[in-house]
Specification:
The structure holds two protein chains of two kinds.
Chain A: E1 4-6, E2 9-13, E3 18-24, E4 31-37, E5 43-50, E6 55-58, E7 61-66, E8 71-76, E9 85-91, E10 99-100, E11 104-109
Parallel strand pairs in A: 2-11
Antiparallel strand pairs in A: 1-3, 3-8, 4-5, 4-9, 6-7, 7-8, 9-10, 9-11
Chain B: E1 4-7, E2 10-13, E3 19-25, E4 31-38, E5 42-51, E6 54-57, E7 64-66, E8 76-78, E9 87-94, E10 104-105, E11 109-113
Parallel strand pairs in B: 2-11
Antiparallel strand pairs in B: 1-3, 3-8, 4-5, 4-9, 5-6, 7-8, 9-10, 9-11
Classes of the chains: A mainly beta, B mainly beta.
Amino acid sequence: GEDVEQSLFLSVREGDSSVINCTYTDSSSTYLYWYKQEPGAGLQLLTYIFSNMDMKQDQRLTVLLNKKDKHLSLRIADTQTGDSAIYFCAENPGNTPLVFGKGTRLSVIA
Amino acid sequence: DGGITQSPKYLFRKEGQNVTLSCEQNLNHDAMYWYRQDPGQGLRLIYYSQIVNDFQKGDIAEGYSVSREKKESFPLTVTSAQKNPTAFYLCASSNPGSSYNEQFFGPGTRLTVL
């Protein structure tokens, strides 16, 4: 079955770049997503990438996709304390619910 | 202002009582979902519905029930058969016919069983 793996914790200093990594299993996924969850809240879609793209940049966010290795990463430039949250990677295996990773908790140290 | 609402935000119940969590969306989405979130466990799918009057079990459906009588509403009942119901519950919706098929999430309901 489908599975999405991500490391559980990441700690960075304010102003540094953060890189959150994810591996997925379904090569037919058309889109891959990054969601952000702040404490006590629901998930918000941060960005997504179409499977025929290698990279997508959106302000401080850069998504890299290596389709051969089924590896997705999210880079946050100039990380701020407001970026502290849980980040979820998700794949879209077709006409079924998205499959989410367990989330990476990003802690930003001032 | 379109979105998903969940109520209440916090819910306390005694052990052995059934409780129903509300989820409403005005996005005109066909599909709706319920997830449970426990610390370190990520999101686990309980039930989902792709069309009115139809729904499917997710990975952890035991002890839960749902109904989908209206497109905009997908209530979740946590029954007394659920062994460990204390958790954060998230509702989501999507439009599977759209290009991106992204899921939109509600703010969540934190259920505590005493």
